[in-house]
Structure formats: structure tokens, C-alpha cells
Write a structure and sequence with these properties.
Elements lengths: L3 H9 L8 E5 L12 E2 L9 E2 L3 E4 L7 E9 L13 E5 L11 E4 L9 E3 L10 E2 L10 E3 L7 H9 L4 E5 L4 E6 L3 E2 L10 E2 L2 H11 L4 E7 L3 H14 L2 E5 L10 H7 L3 E5 L3 E2 L5 E5 L2 E6 L3 H19 L12 E5 L10 E9 L2 E4 L8 H5 L2 E4 L12 E6 L1
Parallel strand pairs: 5-6, 12-15, 12-16, 13-14, 16-20, 18-22, 21-23
Antiparallel strand pairs: 1-11, 2-10, 3-9, 4-6, 4-7, 5-8, 17-19, 19-20, 21-25, 22-23, 22-24, 24-25
Helix pairs in contact: 1-6, 3-6, 4-5
Length: 393
């Protein structure tokens, strides 16, 4: 039996070269992955300019009286200006620097009188002067392929006049739930029937991570129904995620159906709680992830295991496999079983992590928790007061 890291590595070993790219505008590119390097088109700033509202001056005249030269220079002004060593010129933020100036003194730091001013004794030489190309040089690599486009990176592209960009296409994802006992949330269920919560939760989790998915319904507990549903889905989709029917019960047909369809096993069962029965099968670059029907386990396995794999399929770099941890103080003892990885949910507040008791079939604790803790494979217990690494749910 393998752990989570090995399961991810096995799956990534089956990822084929990405099938395609598409061109998007900046409005639609948030969260997408670049398919090629992007080179800067122009220097940033594109010209020497002022970072402040103030007076442009030459640092050689710090101890002298400076005569204020007209006119005031505003942003967007395309005229050429020049000052001598004994002159200063009023200038607004973003306006082009006059030749001969190498610094800006803020308006509020001087008191002009009779068309003259004296610079303050504690002035910082060169302050307020944004030099051409000090941020970005034309021709340098601005962003690299496999980078995820964040709001800041989209702003950077817009500042270069880059509006259309090539990104990797996202995998087409289908969702199923299996079980004769299931009813949809919009249907009526008696006391012996269960509402299908898994697909809604998993779909929301995927959407939050930037992945669109299509829900294809509930599969009956019949092998022929499972085979037909998987065959049909894999003709249209790149990834199929199913909850239910993945354990070893008499009505659990997922593994048999996948084998009948010629899928190769990537991993089968993971040494983790919750989510031990989780499976991954692959055929011709298409993946099927199957989980048991316990809601908490299905949600956590999607978050911890499937999302990193989906990000890699989508072209992200290696950093996508390692979520950013948060250091927290354990507010309670976190017990772990030796030789198994335990995922413990809890609430993170004011630097502390309070573990919450859960079971695989529970949903309410999941809705209350904010973060999770992953034990080491050795099963060492985290004691109260210990500094631990936790991750956002």
C-alpha cells in the first residue's frame, strides 16, 4: 500500500504531453496556465518619470537656493524640459523628468517663497526618480510557461499591452456518484434514502480551484450500468471522478468495470485515513479517480490528492504539488496510528490549531473546520503546544 506522495507520483508518471492550447484575453485568463514564455515588449517604466508630486531638482544643488522654473509638468506631457543646476521644476506623479534632474522633493517637504525654494537638509538624494527600465527591460522574459496567471500577473501583462495570451487547455472533467440509496438534492428522500452530497461538494471544490466539471448523475449498483457510464464518459472527458462503489462490498463494481474497459491500475488503496479505498486508473491519457462514498473522505481526497494531479495535467509547474503550509500551535493532542498517514481536521485561529473529532461519513465537522494536519508515515503523535504544519481546506 502506498502513501499520498507516492500516489501522486504514480499518477503523474502517466500524464501524457498536454493535448492543446488556446488563446484567451486577459478577462478570461485568471487562474490559467501559460503555455509559452512571454517576453516584455517595452521598458517599464518606459521613460524617466516622477514617483511623487513635488519639485524636480539636481542633487548638486542641495545646499543652494533654487529658482522654480515654469511650467508645471503633468503626466502625459510630451514636451521636452530641462533644468539647470540652480533650478527646480514642479512636477506631478507620472510626469516625465526634466533633463538635468536626478531627484524629486515632495510638495509637503518644502515651502516655496517668491518663486524660490531651498531643499531640506535631510533630503534623500535620488528619491522619487523612476528610471527608464528599472523594473523591466524590453526583451527580457516577463513570465514563463507553466506559470499560473494570478491577478498581479494579469496586471503586469496589461501594463505591457499584452491582451491575448496562449494557455494550456483545461481537462474536461466528469463527475459521478454511485449507489441505489442515493437521491438528488432536488428530489424527495425517505428516511432510508441518502441525499447525494458528494457530487455537489466535489464540484464546488473543483470550481473553487478553477476547474469546470459536468455532473453526469447517479449510477445504479449494477456492473453493466457502471461499465456503460464509464465507457460513455471517457469518450467525451479527460478525467472522471466517481464517489461510491470503490470499496470491497458486493455492490462495489467500479474496479471490475474499469478492468473490463481496459484501464490500467495506477494505484489501488492509499495508506491514509480518511480515504483508504481511493483508486486511480488510466487509459490512453484519460484518468478515472474512484473513491468510497463517505462524504468527508471524498472531499478530503479530492482536495489533497486529486487537485494536485489535475493541476499538473493542466500544465502547472512543480510548485502545484506542494501546498503552502502554515505553522500553528497544536491546541490539543493529535493522535496518529503508526504506519499510516492520518489527516486531522481542525480550526485555525489566532495562531493555534484545534483538532476536531470526525468520522468519514460526517459532513458538519467539515463545514466548521478551516484547515487540516497530515501526520508523518511513522505515525508520531503531535503533542499539545507543539508547532505543526497545517494546510487550508
Amino acid at each position: 500500500m502506498i502513501d499520498i506522495s507516492n500516489a501522486i507520483e504514480l499518477a503523474l508518471g502517466r500524464v501524457l504531453p498536454l493535448r492543446g492550447t488556446e488563446v484567451l484575453t486577459l478577462e478570461d485568463a485568471l487562474g490559467r496556465v501559460l503555455s509559452e514564455d512571454i517576453t516584455a515588449r517595452k521598458d517599464m517604466p518606459g521613460f524617466d518619470n516622477s514617483a511623487l508630486d513635488g519639485y524636480a531638482y539636481n542633487s548638486a544643488a542641495v545646499d543652494k537656493i533654487l529658482k522654480i522654473k515654469e511650467p508645471t509638468i503633468f503626466a502625459g506631457d510630451k514636451n521636452f524640459y530641462e533644468i539647470s543646476e540652480l533650478q527646480a521644476q514642479k512636477i506631478m506623479t507620472g510626469a516625465p523628468m526634466p533633463a538635468g534632474a536626478d531627484g524629486i522633493v515632495r510638495l509637503e517637504d518644502v515651502e516655496p517663497k517668491n518663486g524660490e525654494l531651498r531643499l531640506p537638509q535631510d533630503i534623500k538624494i535620488g528619491d522619487g526618480f523612476r528610471k527608464k527600465g528599472e523594473e523591466v527591460r524590453a526583451g527580457e522574459i516577463l513570465l514563463r510557461a507553466s506559470e499560473v496567471l494570478s491577478p498581479a500577473k494579469i496586471m503586469l501583462l496589461a501594463a505591457q499591452g499584452i491582451y491575448e495570451i496562449s494557455v494550456f487547455t483545461l481537462p474536461k472533467i466528469a463527475l459521478f456518484s454511485t449507489g441505489d440509496e442515493l437521491k438528488e438534492p432536488w428530489q424527495s428522500a425517505d428516511e432510508r434514502e441518502i441525499y447525494n452530497a458528494n457530487s455537489s461538494g466535489i464540484r464546488a471544490l473543483l470550481s473553487e480551484a478553477g476547474f469546470a466539471s459536468e455532473y453526469l448523475g447517479i449510477i445504479r449498483d449494477e456492473k453493466s450500468a457502471v461499465v456503460e457510464a464509464l465507457r460513455s464518459a471517457c469518450e467525451k472527458f479527460d478525467v472522471v471522478i466517481s464517489s461510491g462503489g470503490a470499496s470491497a462490498g458486493e455492490a462495489d463494481f467500479m474496479q471490475k468495470a474499469l478492468e473490463d474497459l481496459g484501464f490500467a491500475r495506477v494505484f489501488d488503496h492509499i495508506n491514509v485515513k480518511p480515504g483508504r479505498p481511493t483508486k486511480c486508473y488510466e487509459k490512453d491519457g484519460k484518468f478515472v479517480f474512484a473513491m468510497a462514498g463517505n462524504p468527508l473522505a471524498a472531499f478530503i481526497q479530492t482536495r489533497v490528492l486529486f487537485l494536485p494531479i489535475l493541476r499538473k495535467i493542466s500544465g502547472e509547474g512543480g510548485e502545484c504539488l506542494n501546498p503552502e503550509p502554515i505553522l500553528a500551535t497544536a491546541k490539543g493532542r493529535i493522535k496518529s496510528r503508526p504506519s499510516r498517514i492520518d489527516i486531522t481536521l481542525g480550526i485555525y485561529k489566532d495562531g493555534g490549531f484545534t483538532p476536531v473529532q470526525t468520522q468519514s461519513g460526517m459532513i458538519k465537522p467539515l463545514s466548521l473546520c478551516t484547515h487540516y494536519f497530515v501526520s508523518s508515515a511513522s505515525g508520531e503523535t503531535a503533542e499539545k503546544g507543539e508547532i505543526i504544519k497545517i494546510y487550508e481546506i
